[in-house]
Amino acid sequence: MTTKKTNCVIKNKEKIAEQNNGFIFYLLHFCCFDCFMFCNLFAEKPVISCLMRHVKPLNVTPTYCKTRTLQCTVCDKYKKTLVQSNKLTNEDLHLKAVTLSAETIQYKVRFSMSTYVSSAPQNNGQPVCLGISNSNLYIACTQSGGSSPVLLLKEVSGPLNTIKAGDPNGYDSLLFFKKETGTAYNTFESVKYPGWFITTAFDDWKRVEMYQVPTDRTANFTLEDQQVILS
């Protein structure tokens, strides 16, 4: 036995054409797809024209909220460690990838990696910020004048508990999608500039830079000596 739908609603009916033989065409606005299917099932003649009006979701600006922080060191897949340039030389402030020896192990940079949860659905990886521990410096991916995005160390004041896309202070440039590749490696893709990854060169003492993949540089990193920081 078939149970009829009793709450079917035709929200509006618009006359769109009338033939000489008196046959009239209407444009029907249904409240939902089920109502459209119900009318086709029980109407004397099939409903051949309808307009389904859907409410489009608003474009919501993503907001990222901090969940936890862990300390770690970062090495590329060639076992080179990220170090701060001015710790070893008199160059401008940036990061290098270096195979450390016993004499230079103290220059290893320890990072505070904060993880975030996004208000918008995404499947690109875990949003994170990478700050140098015991400092106000963070890895940032920025762009100016239409040039390619570059990696730099940005000074930040404040806890960065919440970051909103399009932040007027440019704090959204600090966000990266950390994604596991295989069993041991992670990639770091800029949230603000999709397709641009933190990379290192094969040779020692080269800058850590943003590149699009594929590239002859490596975008694969391991997180060593991890320790969760209790808030």
Structure overview:
This protein is mostly beta strands and 231 residues long. It has one helix at residues 33-42; strands at residues 10-18, 24-30, 50-52, 63-76, 81-84, 95-98, 111-118, 126-132, 137-142, 150-155, 162-164, 175-181, 185-190, 196-199, 206-207, 209-212, 221-229. Strands 4, 7, 8, 11, 12, 13 and 17 form a 7-stranded antiparallel beta sheet that branches. A 3-stranded mixed beta sheet has the order 1-2-3. It is globular and about 50 Å long. Residues 1-6 and 45-56 have low confidence and may be disordered. It is found in: Cytoplasm, Cytosol; Lysosome; Secreted, Extracellular exosome. This is Interleukin-1. Keywords: Cytokine, Cytoplasm, Inflammatory response, Lysosome, Membrane, Mitogen, Pyrogen, Secreted, Transmembrane, Transmembrane helix. Belongs to the IL-1 family.
Q: In terms of per-residue confidence, which ranges show pLDDT below 50 for 5 or more consecutive residues?
A: 1-6, 45-56
Total number of helical segments?
1
Number of strands: 17
User: What is the count of distinct domains?
Assistant: 2
**Main beta sheet, described?**
7 strands, antiparallel
Helix content class: under 10%
Radius of gyration, Cα only, in angstroms?
28 Å
Per CATH, which architecture of the largest domain? Answer: Trefoil
CATH class term of the largest domain: Mainly Beta
As a percent range, the share of strand residues is 35-45%
**Shape, per Cα inertia axes:** globular
CATH topology of the largest domain: Trefoil (Acidic Fibroblast Growth Factor, subunit A)
| SSE sequence, one letter per element | EEHEEEEEEEEEEEEEEE
Overall average residue pLDDT? 82
Distance between the termini: 62 Å
By helix and strand content, what is the structural category? mainly beta
Family: Belongs to the IL-1 family.
Pfam family, one: IL1
Transmembrane segments: 23-43
Subcellular location: Cytoplasm, Cytosol; Lysosome; Secreted, Extracellular exosome
